[in-house]
Structures are given as C-alpha cells and as structure tokens.
Amino acid sequence: MRSHGDLHPKNALLRSDGSLALLDWDTAGGYLAEREAVGVALDWATRVDGSFDLERFDAAVEGYREGGGKVPAEPWVFGGWARGYLDFLGRAGEEEGERTQARLGMLATTLHDLVKRLA
C-alpha cells in the first residue's frame, strides 16, 4: 500500500472545512496497512510524557476497522512505529531524544496490553 508514512499530528493541519491537509511527505512509500493504522493510532494517542491515551488509541483503530481495515492482535503490527522512532533517535536532539526514548519505553512496557486491546 502506498501511504504517507508519518501521519503524526505534527504533519497535519485542520482546514476550515474540517478536513485534514497532510504535510511532510518525505517518508511516503509502501507500507503494510496494519502497521500504518497502528502507527497512526499510537502517534495520535501519545501524550507529551510518552504515555498513551488508550481511548484515543482505541478510537483510531476502530475508525480504521469501520473503514474496512483489519488489524490483527499481534505484536508485529507495532514494528513500523517502533522502527520509525528508533531511526529518528540518531537524528534527534537531546530533548526530543529523551521524549522518543520515553515513547519507546512506554511501548515496551505496555505492548502486551496494547496487543490485547486489538483483539
């Protein structure tokens, strides 16, 4: 599937008609839809401290499923999000690097529970 690849809130602008304009297409390419959906759910559910707003995570996954997508309850669907942030660590400044480490740490400690939420 061809996709944006980084549908993080920082790359979206809300238009006056309520639609989103997507910015920063430098990572566009072929992605597995399931990984893209989970990545979007995690990005839009991640708080500044790295924790996850589970209601927002569930809402994003449910929206994808309502559109006909399928998300298996398996750990591999989180791999694209984790890989993206691991790649980013090498380019991040100190402050953003710390936030990125917090995000990855939160995923590591909650992965089992997040997979169960997908079931």
From TrEMBL:
<protein>
    <submittedName>
        <fullName>Phosphotransferase</fullName>
    </submittedName>
</protein>
<dbReference type="InterPro" id="IPR011009">
    <property type="entry name" value="Kinase-like_dom_sf"/>
</dbReference>
<feature type="domain" description="Aminoglycoside phosphotransferase">
    <location>
        <begin position="4"/>
        <end position="66"/>
    </location>
</feature>
<dbReference type="Pfam" id="PF01636">
    <property type="entry name" value="APH"/>
</dbReference>
<dbReference type="InterPro" id="IPR002575">
    <property type="entry name" value="Aminoglycoside_PTrfase"/>
</dbReference>
